[in-house]
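Minutes, structural biology subgroup

Action item carried over from last meeting: produce the C-alpha cell record for Alanyl-tRNA editing protein (Actinomadura rugatobispora). EB confirmed the sequence was re-checked against the source entry. Recorded below for completeness.
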Amino acid sequence: MTTGTHSHGRTARLELDDQSLRDWDAVVLEAGPERIILDRSAFYPGGGGQPPDHGVLLWQGVQTRIAGVRKSDDLELIPVEGDPVPPAGTGVRCAVEDDRRTALMRTHSGLHLLCGVVFRDYGCLVTGGNMEEMSARMDFDLREVPPGFKQAVEDACNLEVEADRRIEVTSLPRAEAFEIPDIIRTATNLVPPEVREVRIVDIVGLDTQADGGTHVASTKQIGRITVAKVENKGRGFRRLRIKISD
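Output recorded by EB:
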C-alpha cells in the first residue's frame, strides 16, 4: 500500500510523494453531493497555476466521476452533479485521468524550464503565470525586450529539453530551504509563513524553486516548447505564451 508523508486535513496526499501514481485504494471518510473526503488521495487539488485533477471513484459496481478538487479544512473531491456518492466507510478504487494529469505535468515542468532559462539568460523574476493542458503563460519583469528575444528563448528552452536534465523533488525545513540562493523566482514570496516544510523542485543544473505542483521526471519528457507570443503587459512586464508538443 502506498502511504504519504504529506497530508491536508484528514487526507494523506499521495501525489506529492509519487507523481506517477494514477490509481490506488482509499476509504471514504465523509461524503455528500458537493464533496467527498478520502483517507488517501493522489488527486492534485490545484495550485501555483496548475489546475486540479479529474478522475473517478469505483465502488460496489458504481462509478462516481470527480470533476475537480479543492482545499478547505480537508481535501475535498467534487463529484459530477447527479452522480451517485459512496457512503462514509466505503472502500473505493480511485483513478486520476491520466492524459490530463500527464499533460499538466509536462506543461508545469515546461514553465519551470522557461523560468530557469529566462532567469539565467536575462535575470528576470516571474510576476505571474497560468497553465492549461499543453499551453501556458508566464509573466516576467523585463523592462526592455532584446532583439531576437522570442526565438532566443525558444531555442534555449529546447536545448534544455534535449539535455534531458533530471527533475528532482525534495522537501526541506523552511529555514534550510530559504538558504538556497534564488529559491524564490517570483517577484514576491508566495510560500505562506505557516508552511514549515518547503517542497523543492530542482531541474538539475538549471532551476531550483519552491513549488507544490506535479512534474515529469526529466526535461526530455516535457516535449518541444514553442514560444508562441511575447506580449507587453505594461510597466515593463512581458507575458510569454508557450505551447508544448510531442
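Discussion: Residues 134 and 244 are 5 Å apart (CA to CA).
Next step: EB to file the record with the rest of the batch.
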